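Let us practice reading a record.
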Amino acid sequence: MEEILHLADKILSDIMSWYGKTFKGALIDLEGSTLIIVLKDVSGISFTSRGEISWFFMRRALKEVELNEGCHLEIIIFSDKEVKYGIPYLSYASKVGKVIYDPEGLFSSSAKVIDEGSMKILDIAEIKKGEVVEIEQQ
């Protein structure tokens, strides 16, 4: 756990110095070992290219931080506009994860997490008629 936090710290420091004011927020979901980065105006960049950006910063951080076998950290980059769409995973991660940096309140959500035994359920409250909601079965 400490290794993942140290790696996330290195990645965030590097991204903040690289992107400056374009960097809008960060959140870490320790359950899924996922680091969520919010950058301004990247909605026009494909998810494949965002993955390449993530891998660039991961490689740089891994030069300084060694991970034990079995430790991993995923990085997902969202635009500031996409965070406002109310994507269910972002709502869930903002409730169960730790917000690291969010001066504009991008991760605030009205959704709540309900514990049902061994499962956690995300209650997205009022879904408007005709609104498309994707539900992924795992």
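A brief commentary: The beta strands are 23-29, 34-39, 74-79, 98-101, 112-116, 119-123.
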